[in-house]
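We emphasize that the prediction below concerns an isolated chain of 298 residues; any contacts that depend on oligomerization or on bound cofactors are therefore not represented. The input was used exactly as deposited, without trimming of termini.
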Amino acid sequence: MNKDLTQLAFLFCSFLLLTSCISKKKYRAEISNLEKDYNGQINQLDKELRISNRAIDTLTLQLAEKKGANRALLMTQDKLQDRIDEIQEEVKNLQNLASAGEKSSNQLVREKEAKIAAKQAQINEILKIIHERENSMKRISTDLANSMISLDSLRKHHEVEIIDGKVVVTLYERIMFHPKDLRVRTGGIQMLELVAEALEKYPQFQISVEGHTDNRSVRGYKSNWNFSAQRAAAVVKVLTGEYGLSPNKFSAVGKGEYAPNSSNEMDEGRAANRRIEIIVSPRIDMILSQIKRTLSTE
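Result of the prediction step, given as a token string:
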């Protein structure tokens, strides 16, 4: 019995020992496999960690760059904002200057308008003087024409015109002189009396008497100039000596044949050229004096 038990115990121990040996081998194999798996996982995790670290480094660098860019942008923004503030201040200053300038411009405009108005008033006054002179010439012309028509209703022997702002009375030789003679005939004296009566109402005008001839020479005289000048002087003598007009406003001029009215080819043309012209014109000195007084009122 004891022997059997001993054998049985031996067998059981052997079984356990055998079993134990098999389990250790399997365990070691499993441990080895686990170690391999673990090492593989460790390596994989280490690889992923390195990748993650690189990614972190990249992100860190990008973040740093972005931070730098942001700082640069912020600095640029700040600078731009400062410039905007400066520009807004400049605009404000310019607006203030513009407002002041507008006020100044308005003042200048008012001053200019006042000067223009003053100048226009002077111009209007000068135009008034000129118009008054023109109206005076028209009145003289009308008075002379109305006066002289009583002796020459058909106007065969005289004409009254306004030429270049002057009144021109033309008296032809046939009523004023005998041919080639210097003495004023009766009909001429009567005409000159009417002229004197009209002109004595206008003492402020100057009078020029011009003698004219045709192109034929007059025997006994040096030239037609000389002859025409003497006829003009004879007319002035009648107007001043016989009818009392002031000599200091008269002048006698000989034009000879050099200011014809018509052609000297025909008798009618030559007759039209032999004439006396009494030219009434405003005194320029008086007009200038009036204009100077007007301008001096500035």
